[in-house]
Amino acid sequence: MTTKIKKSLHTELGHSTPDRITVRGRDLPSEILGHLNLGDMAFLELTGRIPTPQESVTFNAIVVTLVEHGVTPSALAARLTYAGAPEALQAAVAAGLCGLGTVFVGSTEGAAKMLYEAIPFGEKPSRPLADMAKDIVADHRARKLIVPGLGHPLHKPIDPRTPRLFQIAAENGLSTHYVALMQAVQEEAERVSGKSLPINATGAIGAIAAEFGFPWKIIRGFGVMARAIGLVGHILEEIDDPMAIEIWQRVEKEAGGPRQD
User: SUPFAM superfamilies, alphabetically (predicted)?
Assistant: First the structure.
C-alpha cells in the first residue's frame, strides 16, 4: 500500500517563534492568559473559537462533572501504579486514564453516537422521538447490548448530576432534540425492562455534547482531560495519606491461599 505524502505539514492549533506563541491564531500571553479559564481554553483548542457565555457555562459544567467520582477503578489504577513507580507520576495518571472505556466515563461517546445515528447533526427529527426511542431500545435489546448512558450501580433512582446538567443546558439554550431523545430512550428502556435506569452523568453529557455538535469520536476525550485533573489529585492524596500499599496487602491476604467458600 502506498502512502500519499503531503506537500506540506501544517497545524492550526499552535505555533511558536523565538518571541511569540500562538494558539488557534491567538497570542497566548496577551489574548489568552488571564482571559480564558481551563474549560474555555479546551473549547478553543477543540473548536478554534472562544465559547459564548452560554457555551462556556455549559461546557465547563460538563468537564467539571467528570473530574472526580471517588475511588473508582481509574483512581485505584493510578494510586497502585504510583505506589510501584513514584518517580513516574505521569505513568500513574496514564494508567488511570487507560481505564476510561465503555463502562466508566467513556460511555459519553456511546451515548452521543447513538443519538447522532438517530438524528444526524444539523437535521431535525424525522418522526416522533418516542418512536425513535422504541427502535433504539429494541435494537440494543435484540443485540444484547447495554443502552449507553443509562443506569448506575449507586445512583438510583436518579443520578444527582443529571438533572443539574440538563438544567444548565436548558438555561443556556443547549437543550433540544438530543436531550429530549435521551430522555425518551430512558423512559422506553425503563418501560420494557421494568427496572430503574436513570440517565447517568455520562448519558447526560453525551446528549449535551451532541447539542454542541461535537463529533462523537472526540467526546470521550472530555472525560480523559477532566479525569486527568482528578487523578493528579488522587496521587497527591496518595503521597500525603497512602492507601495503595494497604489495598495491595489486604487483597493479597484475602485473595491468597486456599478458597474459604
Answer: Citrate synthase
131 domain residue, yes or no: yes
What does the DSSP 8-state code read for residue 192? H
Distance CA 72, CA 206 (A): 20
**DSSP letter, residue 7:** S
pTM metric for this prediction: 0.91
Tell me the β-bridge partners of 17: 20
Domain of residue 157, CATH code: 1.10.230.10
Asked if residue 32 belongs to a domain, the reply is no
- The boundaries of the domain holding residue 155 are 107-217
pLDDT tens digits for range 93-120:
999 999 888 777 878 999 999 999 999 9
C-alpha cell at 162: 443529571
**Long-range contacts, stretch 11-19, CB < 8 angstroms, 24+ apart:** 12/48, 13/45
